[in-house]
Amino acid sequence: MISKPTNQQLIEAVCAELTGKVAPNITDAGTKVVLEMALSVLSCAAVRTAKELAWMKEETDAIEVVARRFAEDMPDAEALSAALAAYDAGRTGSLYLDGAQADYELISEVLSCATDAAFASGDTARIAAVEELLQQRMANENAVTGTFLAVGRT
Known about the structure:
This protein has 154 residues and is mainly α.
């Protein structure tokens, strides 16, 4: 079956093999650090590969709802309207990673403009709405990058 094992499962299996079978046989400190760094990157990649497209879609949908409401309520927010127009003209709706990333870049500009418009308006509800979007984005980014790991330090 093409969907099993998932990319996440494959990466996690490689990490387990490297940790269980390769790491104990490494005596050189520099090589240990290189392996720990590689394992850290692979662990982040496992999380990212499993969730990245969904996170981008969820964020995109949430940003679009807020931005369209702002654009409707604030017709003088020209940068926001222009960013939404560019998003509408350029979005692919693709499930391929490169297309999804291109859409995400476009919606990121929309988020930036919505944030500027919210703070310029001074409206606490608008500011809270963009802060919620930014918190969602930070939560996703933190899930990908994980906790800080001082590689090579025990």
